[in-house]
Write a structure and sequence with these properties.
The structure holds two protein chains of two kinds. In chain A, a hairpin with a 4-residue loop joins β5 (164-171) and β6. Chain A has two domains: 41-180, Beta Barrel (Thrombin, subunit H); 187-263, Thrombin, subunit H (Beta Barrel), CATH 2.40.10.350. Chain A is of the alpha+beta class. Helices cover 33% and strands 23% of the residues of chain A. In chain A, the strands form two sheets. In chain A, strands 1-13-4-5-6-3-2 form a seven-stranded antiparallel sheet. Chain B is mainly alpha-helical. In chain B, 70% of the residues lie in helices and 0% in strands. Chain B contains six helices and no strands. The radius of gyration of chain B is 16 Å and the shape is globular. The chains are: A alpha+beta, B mainly alpha. Chains A and B meet through α1, α2 and β2 of A and α1, α3, α4, α5 and α6 of B.
């Protein structure tokens, strides 16, 4: 005979389980967004960062190993022409190569800083690849190993010797998140180096950089350099963004659009710099990227202040 | 109860894959997207063991993903739990040894994951706590569809492994 007694509901009941877990997830999100989880997050980041550093290190080594195999195969195919070069490569120690690479990057960063004495630059050992990067495909961010205690603040521009990388979007005690310029929600006021035309460079869901709002009429060439214009106060003026790769100019359109090949390889960032003495203006870029029709609103009549 | 070794390895495997997802997996980008290994393991767990244990794994894996990547905490959990629930529905009525079942589960799981994650991002933007704006059609064309194909193709490669896992009872 079938029992009509109702079983008490517990965590093994799927409805209860889903309900509790959803509540827990929403609660965690609310706590994080309100900033109450910051100390816990900082602690967890400090604990997990070594694991992420190790994972990235192992990945780099494995990648280097397979790259070496691929290189050896190529050398075998073109042995006669590349024999001298192959001997040199074989003589190189892998550790020395790594040190040399880092040395080169540091020199380039130093040179970048020396040629721009007005910008106070704080070198940061990679964070995106080294500490981590966004795990989903929807957001293009990297994590760097400098945070609040190092003087990093939200909105600060991030660069390499190649050019503009993005801006700090979140800061914890010891780490910061950088929203890359190629993220769909990222944008920067830009200037074409030779034709001096202004526009706005923004990221896209495909990861490409698009320069929009270029005035119709004046012409510009493919291969022309794109620099940050400094308008809007989000980034300093004169940082390299990329070069024009293709132009989309419709005769009836108000503006011209161009695809920009980034100066920075966003997929292989290792060392970045944060410009710490630049105070970004947060309000204007939003107006530029989100043009909305302005509806006239009645102006309220001034009221007389009365003092008791 | 016939649980199999995967049942006991799920949580360590998910934690490892969460770490790799935020470090190594970016090197395997195809057409601008990277595979979602954590999601695939959750889908496999849901197919083999049903939705009940899979939602708990999804919650834990989501928290790990968000901690490692610095994303909105809980967002990945909610998206993965939705995927686990939907794909876990196929645990009893369909045989996972039919090739179409795991492939459909991978595709459907990816679409549900994307739908929930994008909804959360949109909600956060409307609520004014995030400025991340994603144009829907472009996101679907450039990210959701390619990653769905990528994940489904990976599931196809994982089929021999999946088919070697023993049939388990409901948990």
């Amino acid at each position: 005979m079938r029992s009509t007694e109702r079983r008490p509901r517990n965590f093994s009941d799927i409805g209860v389980r889903v309900g509790l877990l959803v509540l827990a997830a929403v609660l965690l999100m609310a706590l994080q967004l309100s900033g109450n989880l910051r100390p816990v997050q900082s602690l967890i980041t400090q604990l997990t960062a070594p694991a992420q550093l190790s994972a990235t290190g192992v990945t780099t080594s494995v990648e280097g190993f397979f790259a070496s195999i691929a290189r050896v195969r190529t050398l075998e195919q073109e042995y006669a022409a590349l024999q001298t070069r192959a001997d040199q490569l074989e003589a190189e120690n892998s550790t020395l190569r790594e040190v040399e690479k880092e040395n080169e990057q540091l020199r380039a960063l130093l040179n970048f800083a020396e040629t721009r004495p007005r910008l106070e630059l704080r070198g940061a050992q990679i964070v995106a690849r080294v500490i981590g990067e966004e795990s989903t495909n929807f957001i293009e961010t990297i994590l760097i190993d400098l945070g609040q205690v190092h003087g990093i603040r939200t909105g600060m521009p991030v660069v390499t010797d190649q050019g503009l990388v993005g801006r700090i979007s979140e800061v914890t005690e010891n780490t910061s998140k950088v929203l890359l310029l190629n993220d769909a929600g990222s944008s920067a006021s830009a200037l074409l180096a030779e034709s001096r035309l202004n526009g706005i460079v923004h990221g896209s869901t495909s990861g490409d950089l698009i320069m929009d709002f270029i005035p119709q009429g004046p012409t510009f060439e493919m291969g022309e350099g794109v620099l940050s214009s400094g308008l809007g106060g989000q980034f300093p003026r004169g940082l390299a963004i990329g070069v024009i790769e293709s132009i989309d100019s419709q005769p009836n359109a108000v503006f011209q659009t161009a695809r920009v090949r980034p100066a920075v390889d966003f997929g292989s960032l290792e060392l970045v710099m944060v410009i710490t003495n630049f105070e970004p203006n947060e309000s204007l870029p939003d107006l530029l990227t989100q043009p909305e029709p302005v509806t006239p609103t009645p102006v309220a009549a001034p009221t007389e202040e009365t003092t008791p | 109860m016939n649980r199999g070794v995967l049942y006991y390895l799920m949580i360590p495997l998910l934690l490892l894959l969460s770490l790799l997802q935020s470090t190594t997996v970016a090197r395997f980008k195809l057409a601008g997207v990277k595979p979602e290994l954590v999601l695939l393991l959750i889908v496999i767990g849901a197919l083999v063991y049903g939705a009940r244990p899979a939602v708990l794994w999804a919650f834990i894996a989501g928290i790990a993903l968000d901690i490692f990547s610095g994303g909105p905490l809980g967002a990945s959990s909610l998206a993965l739990m939705a995927s686990a629930l939907v794909t876990g529905l196929g645990h009893r009525p369909f045989s996972r040894f039919n090739i179409l079942v795991p492939l459909t589960a991978a595709a459907l799981g990816t679409l549900v994951y994307a739908a929930v994650y994008l909804t959360i991002l949109a909600f956060l933007e409307v609520a004014g706590v995030s400025s991340l704006r994603l144009p829907l059609l472009d996101t679907v064309r450039d990210i959701v569809l390619p990653v769905t194909v990528y994940n489904t193709a990976l599931m196809l490669l994982l089929l021999p492994l999946l088919n070697r896992l023993p049939e388990s009872q409901d948990l």
